[in-house]
Fold these 4 entries.
Entry 1:
Amino acid sequence: MSTPYEQIHDWLRAEKFDDVLSAMLGDEHKLNPPFDQDANHGWYIVGDIFFRHGNFKNALAAFESALEVYPEDVEAMWALADCHSRMKNFGRAEHFLKEALKSDPDNPNLLYNLGNALFDQRKFAEAIAVYKSVNTDDDDLANKVKQNIEVAEAQL
């Protein structure tokens, strides 16, 4: 037995984003049945599509809806932070990253992004402290952290 989301995920893999939005969203920016039964998942997918297309305002609304359904959703908090960062609302990005870190305090990607949000607010000393707390085996991330520390230190 297939779930309604199987077709959605097939379309996502095929990058048929308009088909996904048509199937999932109603006229009044509400999730259509049966997607409203797993609204957190549905809103996250919708938000991700809007984000990919640079429509950060609609992405924010969708990720906020996902968070309303499941307030502990670290991925939705992270996505909200990414939207705010793209919109240059670095303080709001910082807020959502700190909220996400309450549930996943050692997540190196969240910490790195928090460092970036602080950096973008010119809070260089705080950014350096956060960057130094990133513990990762990912060489690419470790190199980015190192580079950002050097740049931030030069700004002090």
Entry 2:
Amino acid sequence: MPFEHSTSVHPADEAARLLTRGVAQGHPRAVADFYEQWFDFALRLAHRASRRDESFALDIVQDVMIKAARSMPELESRAAIERWLTRVVCNAVVDRLRSERRRRRREAQVEQSAPIASDAGASEWVREQLRLLHDDDALLVRLRYAGAMKLRGVGQAMDLSADAVRGRLRGTLSALRRRAEEGDSDAHGHGQDTRPRTP
């Protein structure tokens, strides 16, 4: 009797293949099932890869699940799913950490160039300029600098996203810098500094 090679597929691998095929074809039920079945695996992996808190890891998992829903290929086994998820999660962690570093550098540049960032005593001129700002903009500046709050904290206090806070602050600080430069130009033109001085 000739030897016959077994062509049977493990039920778990067949289920994995059918599941990923459904995800690849965009079936909502398959996407939901994939999310439920692989969420914990992706979360543990995000924790290990990033060594960050749960909030960070959850953001990573959300990014990964969105990528899965959009571009996941059909995979032949559970092991193949694990390999694919491991690669995608690690890439997502690296991308988000790089993004955070870029954001911190931008924030540092804005703070270093802001007239109020280097004036711990808050000069009378700065206080006057804050009084001239729109109430919301003045509050943003006070929370960020006088209150030493992070962008996310400022956003939560004012019901804004961190990106919205960043944009508003950038515009407000640019306006303050222009006023400071105009004040300096006027002072040089008249031979004196017209800004109020701190007693």
Entry 3:
Amino acid sequence: MSTTEAFRGLVCTETDERDDATATGRSEAGARLEAAYDYDAVDWTGDTLAGGPESMWRYADLLAFEDPLTAAEGGTPLVSAPSLASEADLGSLSIKDEGRNPTGTVLDRGLATAVTAAREADADLVALASPGNAGQSAASYAGWPISARTPSSPPVRRSRTRR
């Protein structure tokens, strides 16, 4: 699996034990795995971001994979919302326009990375539970079968966010 220099693997959110990028599901402790990066491995210069693509891949050095599947997701504009700013008694307010992503959803960023990971792992199938947008987004990136199913009920338990 070809990963960027900064990507250090996946870390268990309960034990801090590290796995490589091929780990899937939960850790041996049953906890969520979180990507770990060495931010010092990225050599940023003043022109690094300015010269990058108008997408999330402008930050490719801080993402996991060297050769991403992409449809130019991310890089969506901030749109000024002066009326809402006035209502909220703010000097200014901007709203991120995620509808300009390839499939019109914020999920395109995450699915571009997830489907790239599946390709890097030589997956035969990408399967996910989705009420709609995620399945549509995953299908737009894949060059192999996608199985997106709508769950019959919401998940019983949500993952705990690490703070």
Entry 4:
Amino acid sequence: MGAERFTTSSFDRSNANRSRSAFTLVEILIVVIILGILSAIVVPQFSNAAVTSRKNSLMEQMKTLRSQVLLFKLQHNDILPDLVANQWAQFQSTTNLSGAVDTTASGKLGPYVVKSPQNPLNGNITVAAGAGAGVGWIYTLATGVLTATNQTSTLLFDETNGVVQ
């Protein structure tokens, strides 16, 4: 008889403990609402961080590419690379003193980049004389100035203000 009482009372205690340790539906809903509010606050900050990161990556990439254009000019007796006509071929291969792609033993200059640089804002690698669909970079052969198109490839990236459009 004493064993039955012990079993019954321990069963009652375990049910009581179980009901006290569980969360109510209202408590769970409150936690879900709080998490929703916090995520609504934090998510826009992460999207701004992604745009800022792409913009900073573009700025550093332009700085590097411009220095490579100057290096090419110095090594080739003031001849600028024709990135519009040749795209990135003159930068990815070895060249001779006249600036022509030359993979023979006389092609001792370069390469200046390992692969075609991709514009981080729009993902395009094409070089053109002006902005347009599918263009990532704009190059002026007369001056050797390299600029980038914006997130919309028909617009120029504004380096001064860093505006991403």
